[in-house]
Specification:
alpha/beta; two-stranded antiparallel sheet; about 5% strand; globular; binds flavin-adenine dinucleotide; flavoprotein; Thioredoxin_CS; transmembrane
């Protein structure tokens, strides 16, 4: 038995009295004081596979080790630069740690030949997935960080690796990585994780606010979840939504949901809509240059646009109703939801064409932009790096413009439609890497194409049924579910 294992054994004995609670990884990073992401055997591969960060640092430590305890503030100082909602340089380095004193992590630590604590590794996150590391193998892309004893030295080491000049006292508002030039067509591909994060955040808000309060809000919630199950761009969000749908009658009997996360009981809180490991606190495309700008509401817009371009003609009116009702019932910004509802109510004829719906969402968003342009200019509340504009600007889509002057723009709607379809369709998902969550063998989702579950169908039932079927859920439960929903569903709007 090696010295490390002996120490580990004694450490475990000491630690046995204080069992550390399991943490919900990146999802809860925003709530944690610690910024380094705690990994363990069960989430190690998935977190490192899914992170949008380009590099990862993995610290193997033992919670009983005094040197590790003393090292923690140093590691955290660096982690604070890169991780969490207030990161100065987000999306570049994922700082993680694995507690080797936990018995469940023994094999994981062995795979990396951990010989002392703390021991730090560096590499592209995906290179850690299913990896092993041995001291003699110098071909590996995983490197041991041999000079990271203090925060300064660790950051210097990282700076040398990636040819950067980050400093511990970098300020958030001088964040050179926040995207200020959104006229770059390719930047939307970074929003794919924002859409997942906004979806998870919207769902969390519903849980925290216990917002499903009536049969009306319950029906609205179901409709939106149906839309997500069929057309969310992320497979794990589609799967999470489908699971909620199938179990909804048990989670919310007669619309009375139990929200708390509970070990034993089946509750809505136990069904994270996009799975447990959705990156949180990143908002890359939607990251503001100030703490309180952009983020969630920007992510929500991108989600709405991305849904709009994925529905078929026959589903367009259902999608419209689902989105309007969702915003009206669950977007906890009174002004936003009231304005948006007015614009929804101004639609007098049901949508028959997906194209019309896509263009309606676009022009509605522009109406919001136009109003906010004035408000933000007079109140100084906007994000200085992201002033509101009528969108898309010419730089992004010259062909969308037939003519324009100071007062008005004449749009070429065919070009606008094609532009939106591509921008929020294939372009948005072009960087996406995601493990199949269907339970078959691992596969990488192709960059484009398959992320939409196309349904030409009679909208609701078939759209969600497809997603549910994809998620390999039982058809019996499905049939039963639909029957119940069909019985309970009352139309909310009349279209006379
Ligand atoms: P956002 O407006 O959030 O846009 C996000 C991204 O979408 C932009 O960066 C751009 O790339 C793209 N985009 C911009 N315009 C369009 C368009 N027309 N079509 C397609 N893509 C576009 N705030 C208020 O203060 N008052 C309100 O009444 C209000 N209503 C809202 C209603 C809804 C449904 C939502 C989701 C948000 C609302 N907000 C409102 C918030 C506001 O619209 C912005 O989301 C917020 O100010 C952040 O702005 P942003 O700069 O991140 O860009």
């Amino acid at each position: 038995m090696s010295l490390v294992h002996l120490l580990l054994f004694f450490g475990l004995v000491i630690a046995a009295s204080s069992t550390p609670g399991s943490r919900l990884i990146l999802r809860e990073i925003a709530d944690q004081k610690d910024r380094a992401v705690e990994l363990n055997t069960s989430n190690f591969d998935s977190v490192l596979k899914d992170t949008p960060a380009k590099y990862a640092v993995v610290e193997f430590f033992a919670h009983w080790c005094p040197a590790c305890r003393n090292y923690k503030p140093h590691y955290e100082k660096v982690a604070r630069l890169f991780n969490g909602p207030d990161a100065i340089h987000p999306g570049i380095v994922l700082m993680t740690r694995v507690d080797c004193a936990l018995k469940t992590n023994t094999k994981l630590c062995d795979k990396f030949s951990v010989s002392h604590y703390p021991m730090l590794f560096w590499g592209p996150p995906t290179k850690f997935v299913s990896a092993t590391w041995e001291p003699q193998k110098d071909k590996s892309e995983i490197l041991v960080i041999d000079d990271g004893r203090t925060a300064d030295r660790l950051l210097n080491w990282i700076n040398k690796q990636i040819d950067s000049s980050y400093a511990l006292d970098d300020q958030k508002f001088e964040n050179e990585h926040s995207l200020s030039n959104l006229t770059d067509y390719n930047q939307i591909s970074q929003a794919v994780y924002d859409v997942e994060e906004a979806t998870a955040e919207a769902f969390d808000i519903i849980l925290v606010q216990k917002a499903i309060k009536s049969s009306e809000t319950s029906a609205s919630f179901i409709r939106f979840i149906q839309l997500l199950a069929a057309h969310h761009l992320s497979r794990r969000c589609r799967k999470g939504a489908a699971e909620i749908l199938v179990n909804y009658d048990d989670l919310c009997p007669s619309g009375n949901c139990s929200y708390e996360k509970s070990g034993g009981k089946d509750t809505l809180g136990n069904y994270p809509i996009c799975g447990k490991d959705v990156p949180r606190g990143y908002y890359m495309f939607c990251r503001g240059s100030k703490n309180d700008t952009r983020g969630f509401s920007c992510g929500l817009w991108v989600l709405i646009h991305s849904l709009s371009v994925r529905v078929e003609d026959g589903e367009s009116h259902f999608a419209f109703t689902a989105i309007c009702d969702f915003v009206n019932n669950f977007f906890m910004c009174d002004e936003c939801r009231l304005h948006f509802n007015d614009m929804c109510l101004s639609v007098k004829t049901p949508f028959k064409k997906a194209r019309d719906f896509v263009l309606w969402v676009w022009s509605t968003h522009n109406k919001v932009n136009e109003r906010l342009m004035k408000d933000e200019a007079s109140l100084g509340t906007g994000d200085p790096k992201f002033p509101k504009i009528i969108w898309p600007p010419k730089e992004l889509c010259p062909l969308c413009y037939l003519s324009s002057n100071q007062k008005s723009i004449e749009w070429d709607h065919d070009h606008v439609y094609n532009f939106l379809k591509n921008y929020y369709g294939p372009k948005l998902v072009s960087l996406y890497k995601e493990k199949s969550v269907i339970g078959r063998k691992e596969e990488t989702v192709p960059a484009t194409g398959d992320l939409t579950v196309a349904t030409n169908a009679l909208v609701v039932p078939i759209g969600a049924a497809l997603a549910i079927a994809i998620a390999s859920c039982a058809f019996g439960a499905l049939a039963c579910y639909w029957r119940t929903q069909q019985k309970n569903r009352k139309p909310r709007r009349s279209w006379n």
